[in-house]
Amino acid sequence: MIPPTSPSRSSDARRVRALVTLGDSTTVGLGDPLPGGGWRGFPSLLRDALGGPAEVALTNLSRSGARMACVRREQLPGALAAHPEVAVLCVGMNDTLRSDFDPVVLRGDCAATVSALRAAGAHVLMLRFHDHTRVFWLPAPLRRALRRRIDALNTVTDVIAAGDPHGIGVLDLHLIPGGYERATWSVDRLHPSERGHRMLAAGFATLLAGAGFAVPQPVSLQCSGGRQVSAADRAAWLIVKGVPWLVRRGRDLGPVILEGLVTELVRGTPASG
């Protein structure tokens, strides 16, 4: 369990007045529903830690299904127009789940996005992704294929961050205590639960405090203000969205599974997961 973020109010700490978040459905806030509808998610929780809506302008440009190229093409212009002190980039998992996954192309889009944000003066926060197969069941061949792709995605992050270690902070989800616990994930096991979103916000806030930014309020890991997900909600998700999603991804990644099986047979790799 990550401890709640310690407030940082040092007189020489830099205040964040404009926060931009770019990415996919996790950045939209999926998994952290609000009682009146819609989503909250880590962007709002991080904004509150940095001073709240009265002091920090949050521009959340994310959309469900976005890939790295979408962020560069569709979200980056709006991010630059917001003149952020801090920009959070949370994207890439949708790329790993598509049959046209190309780490070289992904690296080009990611590098261009981060370079543009840094050139505009933003401190950039990125993610190293966890082993998603530890929280979401997949058939063994698909599990192995996804692990390889997540490794490739994390390598892209590592290379880009290493080129600007003072201007880029990286939150490693694999190392967050409690990150693989069931309560950290929503019913779909693809998006963080409210608790998971709070852990993300706390992790990002800690990185910002370490980089010299003011974090006036701690990020509490105590769940509050969200809508409790019921057993009926879980059943509805499984029927309406869960099974259709698995069918779509199975079709899309069928060639990937076949290629992985052939590679393993050639190399003599055991077929077990």
Question: How would you explain this protein's 3D organization?
Answer:
With 273 residues, the chain is of the alpha/beta class. It is built from eight helices and five strands, in the order βααβαβααβαβαα. It starts with 17 loop residues before the first strand and ends in a 6-residue tail after the last helix. Residues 22-198 form the SGNH hydrolase-type esterase domain. Keywords: Hydrolase. This is SGNH/GDSL hydrolase family protein. InterPro entries: Ester_Hydrolysis_Enzymes, SGNH_hydro, SGNH_hydro_sf.
Number of helices: 8
- The overall pLDDT average reads 84
Instruction: State the end-to-end distance.
Output: 28 Å
- Radius of gyration based on Cα positions: 19 Å
* CATH architecture grouping: 3-Layer(aba) Sandwich
Envelope shape: globular
Number of strands: 5
H-E order: EHHEHEHHEHEHH
Structural class: alpha/beta
CATH fold title: Rossmann fold
Oligomer: single chain
Sheet having the most strands: 5 strands, parallel
What is the domain tally? 1
Query: Which percent bin holds the helix content?
Result: 40-55%
Name of the CATH homologous superfamily: SGNH hydrolase
The CATH class designation is Alpha Beta
Q: Please report which band the strand proportion falls in: under 5%, 5-15%, 15-25%, 25-35%, 35-45% or over 45%.
A: 5-15%
Strand arrangement across the biggest beta sheet = 2-1-3-4-5
Poorly predicted regions: 260-273
